[in-house]
Amino acid sequence: QVQLVESGGGLVQAGGSLRLSCAASGRTFSTYTMGWFRQAPGKEREFVALISWSGELTDYADSVKGRFTISRDNAKNTVYLQMSSLKVEDTAVYYCAAGYRVAAPSGPWNYWGQGTQVTVSS
User: Fold this and answer.
1) How far apart are CA 114 and CA 16, in angstroms?
2) Cβ neighbours for 13, distance < 8 A, ≥ 6 positions apart
3) Which of 34, 70, 73, 99 has the highest Cβ tally under 10 A?
4) How many CB atoms lie within 10 A of CB 10?
5) pLDDT tens across 27-46, in order?
6) Rounded to whole angstroms, how far apart are CA atoms 85 and 110?
7) How far is CA 14 from CA 38, 76, 84, in A?
């Protein structure tokens, strides 16, 4: 069982930066691929980024490539999403997810956090 708690969301101006964190409980965190997803009002949840258990493999949605960076610290059971050059269209609730041996955005993702709101103003 893995429990995920996101933090770091907030209000930021366009062009600014924000770092999200996702703290995981459970001793098996280091064996899970971790991902970030987001859901804007009236839209479906979409993939943002993922990182393999070792950190060697990362993948990003085209819309965030070059602006967002995913990383993890297995010693702290935490995954991060560094967001830079934020745009108004990045406004959404951001969710952390964990998937066992996941290698692609399609998952399957076994565990989800409750989400953290990111609002980018113009």
Assistant:
1) 24
2) 86, 120, 121, 122
3) 34
4) 11
5) 788 889 999 999 999 999 99
6) 31
7) 17, 30, 9
